[in-house]
Structures
1.
Amino acid sequence: MLELIQAGGWVMLAIILCSIVALGIIIERFWSLRASRVAPRHLLAQVWNWVKNNQLNKDNLKSLKESSPLGEILAMGLVNHHYGRETMKESIEETGRKVVIELEKFLNTLGTVAHIAPLLGLLGTVLGMIKVFTVITMQGVGNAGALAGGISEALLTTAAGLSVAIPALIFHRYFERRIEEFVIGMEQEALKMVEVFHGEREVISK
C-alpha cells in the first residue's frame, strides 16, 4: 500500500483523503437517514391519540418535536392549528424546508468528492506523463526505470481517482433519492393531520 502511495505521488494522498471523507459521510448518512429516525411509523396515530385524550400539552409537543424530523414538522403544525388551515399549512411548509436542509447535510460535500476525485486522478496522469517526457528529453528512451515510474504514477492516480469517484457518485444519487422519498412521505402525513383537524378526513387509525 505504501509503495502504491509513493508511486502515485502527492496526488495519491489527496485522493486517499477524499476517500476517507466520502466513506465517513456515507456511514453517517446511512445512520442518519434511517426510516425509524426520520419518519417513525404510527407517529401520526400517536398524535391523534393525544388530541383525542386531551393530552396535547407542551411536554408532549416538545417530545414530538425532538423525536424525529417528521415529529418536528407535525409539532409545528399542531402549535399553529388554532390559527386556521392556511397558517397551519404554511408553518408546516416552512419547517419542512428546514428539515430538508438538515436531511441533505453533507451531501454537497459527497457530491464535490465525486467530482474532484477523477480530476485529481487526471492531474496525476498529466504529472506522470510530464515526468515521462522529461525523462525522454533528458535521457532518451533508454532509462526504462524512470519511464516506468512516470507511467505508473499516471495510471495509478487515474485508477484511484475513479475508484473513489464512482462509489461517491452512486451513494450521492442514492441518498438524494432516499431524501425525496422521505419528503413525499412526510408531506403526506402532514397533509393528513391538517385535513383531520379541519374535518376534511376521517380520524387516522393505523
2.
Amino acid sequence: MAVSTPSDRTLRHRLRRLLADNPVVLKELRGRMRGARAFIVLTIYLGLLGAFSSLIYVAVSESATRVSGQVNVGEIGRTLFGGVVAIEMLLVSFIAPAFTSGAISGEREHQTYDLLRTTLLPSHSLVWGKLVSALSFVLLLLLAAIPLQSIAFFFGGVAETEVILSFVILTATALLFSTIGLYFSARSSRTLSASVLTYALATFIMFGLPIVLGSVLWIIEPSLDNIQSVQAERAVIYALGVIISTNPAATALMSQYILVNQRTTGTFAYTLNNGQDMTLISPWVPFTVLYVLLTVVFFVLAVRRVRVIEE
C-alpha cells in the first residue's frame, strides 16, 4: 500500500488551490459546458477533421494508383497523419484565441468586471482562471482528435512517438495563443480590438514566419555548400534551427523528418561540409521551451495589465 509523503500532499494541495479552488475556473467551465456552444464547436471541429481526413485518403490513394498502379499503405498512413495534424494545428490556432480574446474585455463590456473585482480574488488568480478554463476546452479538442490521428496506425508508417510529439507541439501552440489572447483582452477595452490584435499576431506566427523561413532558406541554401569556415557553417546551422523552432508547422515537419530518418527524438548528428559531425537538438525541444517562456511572459504582462486597470 502506497503511503503519501508530506511533499505529495503539499503538491496535491497546491494543485487543488490552482484548479479546483479557483472560482473563475469553476464558473467558466460550468458556463461553457452547460450551453450548446461547446458541443457545437466540438462537433464542427471533429466533422471538419473527419471530412479533410477522408479527402486526404481519397486523394493520396488515387494519386498512388495512377502513378505506380499500386497503393503504398505506409505512405498513405504518413500522409494521412501529417494532414490531420496540419489541419488540427490550423483549427486550434484559431479556436484557442477565440476563447481568451474576450475573456477580460468581455467582462468590461457586460459591466461585470467591477463586480468581479470587488471579490478578494487577486489579479493573477483571475488571469489564471480564465486561462485554465479556456485551455481545458482546447485540450479536450486535442484529445478528441487523437482517434482520428490513430487511424494512420491501420496503414502503418507512423509510430506512437509521432502522436506524442504532435500532441506536445499542439499543446504548446494552444497555450501560447491562449495567453496572447488573454493579454490583448486585458490590454483592450473592446473584444473586437482584442480579437483583431490576437489574430494578427497568431496569423504572423503561423503564416508570416514560414514565409520568412522560406526566404532565408532560399537565400542561404546556395551558399551553404561553399562555406569553408567551420565556425561560419555552425553559426548558419544554429540560426536556421532557431528560425525553425519559432514556427509550429516547421517544427512539426522537421521533428518528424528527424524521427523518421535518424530514429531519435532528442539529439541527432549533422554532417558538415568538411565531414565533421555536430550534435543538434530536435526542434520540438527548443520550440516547447520557447513557447512556454513566451507564455509566461504574456501571462505576467496580462496580470500587470489587470492590476493597472484596477488602479
3.
Amino acid sequence: MLKLKGTGIAIVTPFKKDGSIDYNALENLINFWIKGDVEYLVVMGTTGESVTLSAEEKKALLAFTAENIHGRVPLVVGIGGNNTSEVVQNLETYDLSKVDAVLSVAPYYNKPNQQGYFEHFMAVADASPKPVILYNVPGRTGSNMTAATTLKLANAHKNILGIKEASGNLEQITDIIMNKPEHFQVISGDDALTLPIIASGGTGVISVVANAYPYEFSEMVRFCLADDFESARELHFKLFDFTRFIFLDGNPGGIKAALYKKGLCENTLRAPLAPVNNEVYEKIIRSVEKLG
C-alpha cells in the first residue's frame, strides 16, 4: 500500500483575469512546490475550486499536472461528489495512469446517514484503480462521518488507504488513530491542527498553507514526524497567524491573495467564490511581508 507520509499540498487552480485556467502559472507553481521539498501534490480538491471546473477542464488539468510533475513527487487527484454512480463513472473514465491515489470527499448536501457513507465509499473503493483516501470535512459537507464508520471502512476494504480528517474534532481523530488497522493512514485536513494530530499518531497533512510556504510547512511536518516537537513548534508558531488569516474570509480566497502578493498567480476565483474582503486582504499581505 502506498505511503503518503509528510506534506501534500491541496493545490490551487490558477486562473487568468478572464477566468480561464492559467497553465503557465500552474507550471511555475508546480516547480515552486516541488523545489519547496513537499512530499506530494493533490489536484482538483476543494482548494483547487474543482466544483467550478467543467468535465473537460478537469481532464485537461489532471493531464497537465501529471505531465509537469514528471514523476518527481506522487500525485493525488480529487474525485468525489454526492452522486455515487457519477463518482464511480468518473473513476472508470478518467485517465489515472499517472496518479498515485484518489482523494474522495464525503457526499455533501444530501447528508447521508452513516450506512449511506459506508455504501458510497465501498462503491468508490471497488471502482477505483488506485488507492482511495477518504475525506471527511463536515464544515463543507454539512454532516460528519463518524469514527465508527471510518474504522468500519478501514477494515472492510483493502483499497482504502486512509482518511484526510478535517472535522476539527481531536477526540474523533484520536479515536480513529487509536483503533485503526496498521495500514490505514490518518492525514490532517486542518493546517492549524497538524502538529497535535501528528503528535497523536497522524502521518502528515494535506495543506493549504504549503501553497505559499511549501518548505517551511513541510519542514515543520518533518520535525513532527521525527519527534522533534521543539523545532516543529517554532515553525508552527511562525506560520500560525498566516494560517489563521488565510481562512478568515474563505478558502481558497485567502491563499490566492497570498500567492498574488508573492507574484505566483492572479488573485482570481470563479463565481460563486470571490476574493477576500479588504480587511482580511491587508492582514494576509502584512503577514506575507513579515514572513518574507
